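Progress report, Aim 2. The chain analyzed during this reporting quarter is listed below.
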Amino acid sequence: MPIVLKGDKQIENVPSIHAKALRINLNEHIYGTFAEIGAGQEVARHFFRAGGASGTIAKTMSAYDKDFSDAIYGIEDDRRYVTEARLKKMLSHEMSLIEQRISREKHPDKIFFSYANTVATIDFAKKYKGHGWMGVKFQVAPDEDYNEIVLHVRFHQIDAKLQQETLGIMGVNLVYGAFYKHNNPRKLLRYLYDHIDTDMIEIDTINFSGPRFADVDNRLMSLQLVKNGMTEAVMFGPDGNNILPARILYKKNILALRGSYRPVTKVNMDMYKKSYEIFIRENKVDVDKTVVVFEITLSNLRAEGEIDEQDFMDRARLLCSLGQTVMISNFKEYYKVVEYFSNYTKERLGLTLGVNNLVEIFNEKYYRHLSGGILEAFGKLFFKDLKVYLYPMVDPETGQLITSNNLKVHPRMKELYKFFKYNGKVVDIFDFEQDILHIFSRKVLGMIASGEEGWEEMLPEGIAELIKEKKLFGYDAKAVIEKE
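Predicted structure tokens for the chain:
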């Protein structure tokens, strides 16, 4: 087996793409079809070139013409072809044909699969880099129901041919992983990048389903995408399921709130409600085209240098229970959040911040890696049509209310701060709940862990009950009873 160099790590015993395709072909039980529409015509080619494909491939096809594609898979309501809905229709249609045309009586030991992709590579003007959906529907045993792995990719290469080749490699990795790594989805996820650098192609959404993945939490798998550097951010809808960032952010006004939410408190929700009321009154902001995103950075998910995945699940679950959309990102700096959103929209952007967060933004140490330093960062942060909505705080020592008018930044940053403030980029939230300003997540967390009374009143309705029911954040009902 060859040795593959990936970043600074040396990974031994990684089979070549040829070896993976050949192993599939030589497995007498595996039998299925490849359907590739749009620019994705590369996956089946690897299996043909490996040899022995007649024992594996029942059919390959490409309905490149849209009318032919519609005749086979049906017409999409939105007339779009590079979508998850299209991919799933392809997988289901091709699988039904296998079931109809290949006799189970004649082939009792066959395990069927259907691989499909629908892809748009970079355009001629190189304005849109391209993206696509790919997936595999497969059995592990002849008498077992089908499993499914579906993922969305975004290309980072600027050459259509290179994008197609990268897609072909990832497609082989996906089919190989489905049959030989399905018992360990986390490893399967990493193996998707065998012989591919993570800066070539990004996986920003993945979902596992079926009997072999009954215990897989797709939110945790999304966390692995961010953790492994396969994407910069993933998103979850109010129902707790993965959602494609582009689907919810495209051409939308976006109000983002960053926090630890450990746990989410009444202050967090007051920040959201009051800043949202201001945001939707801004010029050109259409409520029907506005989305609110609660963002948690990966750096806030670390415990002793490692990601505490259970802790992540707890925070996401509570925010989703409040009907919110959650984003987990790799972004440490706020300007990177703005850059990310700007990939999807040119509409209004808003950031809701507490006083401490805004003061931290003006700390030069976060921008030493930029050639232009803090000025470059702020040029990126405020270049778009963005405003900061500032939630006040009470100084614990003096009892003074701190707003944009009296907060203190480093002396070297005073003039820079004044520039943005007096140009209307910083907007104070005045209609806040005065009696909850004393609430801090870290205080609530300490009270929960120690069994101290009264923390329930600091949280939004229904959150305390969920914490107790699920025993989140170190809550111990027995310890509370014994203390009483």
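The first helix runs from residue 17 to 26. Residues 217 and 280 are 35 Å apart (CA to CA). These observations will guide the mutagenesis work planned for the next reporting period.
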